[in-house]
Structures are given as structure tokens and as C-alpha cells.
Amino acid sequence: MAPLNSGGGSIGTFFGLYISQPTAATTNYALYSEGGTNYFGGNVGVGTATPSVALDVNGTARAVTTNIVIGAGSGTNPTPVYVMQRARNTIASPQAVQSGDLLGSVKTGGYDGST
């Protein structure tokens, strides 16, 4: 779908669908899906306007579920990989890590019967 430009000039940004931030109710959803299948053909960004991979999250992500599956892909090396990368400074202007920097961690735990 191409935008209609009847006034001449150029179009800098085009949205196929734009939903403004709703504020009229106690609970406001910009987009709410009761169920069904939701399909996104391109990259999806959460906290970023320029996602570079299928799901690009800028910030803390939380998954409340019993299973998180990191599946093996196809190709010459179908081994699932969990990658943690760290740099000092910001994503836009990264700097090298230094000796002693914590590069990542994996935390596991078991149910103790009380919480």
C-alpha cells in the first residue's frame, strides 16, 4: 500500500496503521488482541523504532511461563545458542569491557515448597 501524495513534495515517514496513545479510560490499550493468531511479517521492536532482528527488545524482557524454548534451527549448525554480550557505555556508542566486568549470568532456582 503506497501513500497518496496529492500535495507534491516528499513523504518522510509513512505508517500503514497508526494508533495514538489512548488515555480516556482507567485501563488503556493501544492494541489488544483477545486471542487468535497474530502475524507480523517483518521485524518487531519493543522499545526501539528500528528493530534489526525478528524480535528486538531494548530494555528488560520478562517471560512468565513454564517453558522458554530456544529451538535449534536448520542448516549446517543447528545447535541452539544463548548469547550474552556486554559493552560499557551505551548501545549506540559501545566501549570495550575491562578486566573484572561481569559479562553475563544465568540464574536458576528450585521451588522450596513455600513461595
Describe this structure in words.
By secondary structure, this protein is low in regular secondary structure. It has a domain at 44-90. It is 0% helix and 9% strand. It has no helices and 4 strands. It has a two-stranded parallel sheet with strand order 1-2. It is extended. It starts with 43 loop residues before the first strand and ends in a 20-residue tail after the last strand.
Briefly, what is this?
The protein is largely without helices or strands and 115 residues long.
Features:
little secondary structure, two-stranded parallel sheet, single chain, 115 residues, two-stranded antiparallel sheet
State Rg. Answer: 21 Å
Low-confidence stretches: none
Task: Please trace the helix and strand order, writing H or E for each element.
Answer: EEEE
In percent, how much strand structure appears in the residues?
A: 5-15%
Large-scale geometry: extended
Helix content percent band: under 10%
How would you sum up the major sheet?
2 strands, parallel
What is the distance, rounded to the nearest whole angstrom, between the alpha carbons of the first and last residues?
52 Å
Structural class by SSE content: little secondary structure
Strand adjacency order, main sheet: 1-2
Q: Count the DSSP helices.
A: 0
Strand tally: 4
The average pLDDT is 82
